């Protein structure tokens, strides 16, 4: 009997020790993510204004599949189904975005579109009634076209408009929304001011993108301060920003390539994160030096990278409660002068080579972020795999298994403070220039059916199990 007990205890202790590394923290938030333009449809219904995405996909088919988000997943009319899907996934949270022109059709507060407010109230209430917390992105690429007509993000006045818009969101939804993300992937959308082919398709390479960056950082900081000063005490939520942080690993372990990897990270992520999340604030030194030097060499009497005043540097640093991070894959970099002159790519002096799905790249990236920006909780707001479709998506299950395994290692072995994870995406949706040809969903959407029928894929059952148990299945123990 005693012998049996000892043996039993040994097995039990062994099993729980193993599970300790296989388990996510009890309060870890799991869920799925979407964005307004990619799922809502109803592009001109009930008073919604035109966005730069509506304008772009209606007017520039030469850059796209010719499809649009006019109807998309029709979530404007089918949000209750979306919430049931999230419930079936055992999701703790749902990350969705609010369409600025659905709430403020002109971008300004002269017209407040009540049906738009009603739509998001209904969605939020439906989520909460089903035990799911909203995580709300204020801006996921869909600027009101009216504000593009005055120049869009390179115009610093846009920060004033964005703060007004954010105030409307806090006032209307902040009693129930506790997680706010000001911007999604600014490093991606500022490219719309550097090149043709992504909205609003304004090719001012190496100038427009830096101007837009400057406005976006200021707008973010002002919204955080607005929340901090006027809403935090009564609403008690958190405000952050989501940055795209794919892996940018050195192609090999030479000094030149390690430096290139660091430069690439600073130009892609640091340019937004350093002003907000470091002690010293401001743009990363390497970014300032390279853009300033190149600007002088080009014969300009000012840098293409705008300057923050000392007062602005202090105001911006620390203006976040958490850091949102999107990660899909890892690319490899080597030193090289690539791209037109001027351009951010040329300024960075980095040549990026296509990589692939290496989950260790996410673990490395998480460690880089935790070291570079200590003290901030990290929320993985997007991670996912695209394929050409099908319900038996073992490729997606394998991808999530490996990437979630990497997140577990980062948390449990490396001590990186990851607090949540929302998979991209809840369902197949409008994948920007790839239209409906590329599928990211845990749920399939039949875009040929008028009711946009949603069907769970195998990955939905897999994730439902992970989300409820907060651990990877035993066979994936680390
Ligand atoms: C991100 C973006 C999402 C989605 C995803 C998949 O860059 O935030 O909207 O499209 O990529 O490609």
Question: Overview of this structure, please?
Answer:
It is a single chain. The chain has an eight-stranded parallel barrel, surrounded by four helices. A three-stranded mixed beta sheet has the order 6-8-9. It is an alpha/beta fold and 478 residues long. The protein has a single domain, classed as Glycosidases (TIM Barrel), CATH 3.20.20. Helix 4 (75-88) runs parallel beside helix 6 (114-129). Strand 10, helix 16 and strand 11 (418-424) form a beta-alpha-beta unit. The longest helix has 28 residues, at 208-235. Residues 1-19 have low confidence and may be disordered. It is built from 17 helices and 13 strands. The two termini are 33 Å apart. The site of beta-D-galactopyranose has 12 residues, from loops.
Structure, briefly:
The protein has 478 residues and is an alpha/beta fold. The protein has 17 helices and 13 strands.
Which residues form runs of ≥5 with pLDDT under 50? Answer: 1-19
What is the structural class? alpha/beta
- Backbone shape: globular
Largest sheet, strands/sense/barrel: 8 strands, parallel, barrel
Ions, cofactors and other ligands present here are: beta-D-galactopyranose
Q: Give the N-to-C terminal Cα separation.
A: 33 Å
Counting DSSP E segments of at least 2 residues, the number of strands comes to 13
The CATH architecture term is: Alpha-Beta Barrel
Name given to the CATH homologous superfamily: Glycosidases
* Rg (C-alpha, Å): 22 Å
CATH-assigned fold name: TIM Barrel
**Oligomer designation:** single chain
Helix content estimate: 40-55%
CATH class: Alpha Beta
Helix-strand sequence:
HEHHHEHHEHHEHHEEHHHEEHEHEHEEEH
β-strand amount: 5-15%
The tally of helices reads 17
Mean pLDDT: 95
Strand order of the largest sheet: 1-2-3-4-5-7-10-11
Q: In total, how many domains does the architecture comprise?
A: 1
């Amino acid at each position: 009997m005693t012998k049996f007990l000892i043996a039993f205890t040994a097995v039990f202790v062994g099993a729980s020790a193993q599970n300790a590394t296989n388990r996510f923290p009890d309060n870890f938030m799991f869920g799925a993510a979407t964005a307004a333009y990619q799922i809502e449809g109803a592009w001109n219904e009930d008073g919604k204004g035109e966005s730069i995405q509506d304008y772009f996909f209606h007017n520039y088919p030469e850059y796209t599949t010719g499809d649009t988000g006019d109807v998309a997943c029709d979530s404007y009319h089918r949000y209750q189904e979306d919430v049931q899907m999230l419930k079936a996934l055992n999701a703790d949270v749902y990350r969705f975005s609010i369409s600025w022109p659905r709430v403020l059709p002109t971008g300004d507060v002269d017209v407040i579109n009540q049906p738009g407010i009603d739509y998001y109230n209904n969605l939020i209430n439906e989520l909460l009634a089903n035990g799911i917390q909203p995580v709300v992105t204020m801006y996921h690429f869909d600027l009101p076209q009216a504000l593009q007509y005055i120049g869009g993000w390179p115009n610093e006045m846009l920060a004033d408009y964005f703060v007004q818009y954010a105030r409307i969101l806090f006032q209307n939804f902040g009693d129930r929304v506790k997680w706010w993300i000001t911007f999604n992937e600014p490093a991606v959308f500022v490219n719309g001011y550097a090149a043709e082919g992504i909205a609003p398709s304004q090719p001012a390479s190496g100038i427009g993108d830096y101007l837009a960056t400057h406005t976006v950082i200021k707008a973010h900081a002002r919204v955080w301060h607005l929340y901090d000063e006027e809403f935090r005490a009564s609403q008690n939520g958190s405000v952050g920003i989501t940055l795209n942080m794919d892996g940018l690993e050195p192609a090999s372990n030479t000094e030149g390539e390690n430096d290139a990897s660091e430069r690439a990270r600073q130009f892609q992520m640091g340019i937004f994160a350093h002003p907000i999340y470091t002690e010293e604030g401001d743009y990363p030194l390497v970014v300032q030096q390279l853009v300033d030097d190149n600007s002088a060499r080009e014969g300009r009497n000012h840098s293409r990278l705008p300057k923050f005043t000392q007062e602005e540097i202090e105001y911006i640093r620390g203006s976040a409660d958490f850091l949102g991070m999107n990660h899909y894959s890892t690319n490899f970099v080597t030193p090289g002068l690539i791209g037109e002159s001027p351009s951010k790519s040329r300024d960075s002096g980095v040549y990026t080579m296509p990589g692939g799905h290496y989950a260790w790249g996410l673990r490395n990236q998480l460690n880089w972020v935790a070291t570079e920006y200590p003290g901030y909780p990290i929320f993985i707001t997007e991670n996912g795999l695209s394929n050409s479709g099908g319900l038996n998506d073992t490729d997606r299950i394998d991808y999530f298994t490996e990437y979630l395994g990497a997140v577990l290692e980062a948390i449990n072995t490396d001590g990186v403070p990851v607090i949540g994870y929302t998979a991209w995406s809840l369902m197949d949706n409008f994948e920007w220039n790839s239209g409906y040809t590329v599928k990211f969903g845990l749920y399939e959407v039949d875009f040929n059916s008028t009711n946009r029928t949603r069907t769970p894929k195998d990955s939905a059952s897999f994730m439902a199990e992970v989300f409820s148990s907060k651990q990877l299945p035993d066979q994936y123990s680390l």
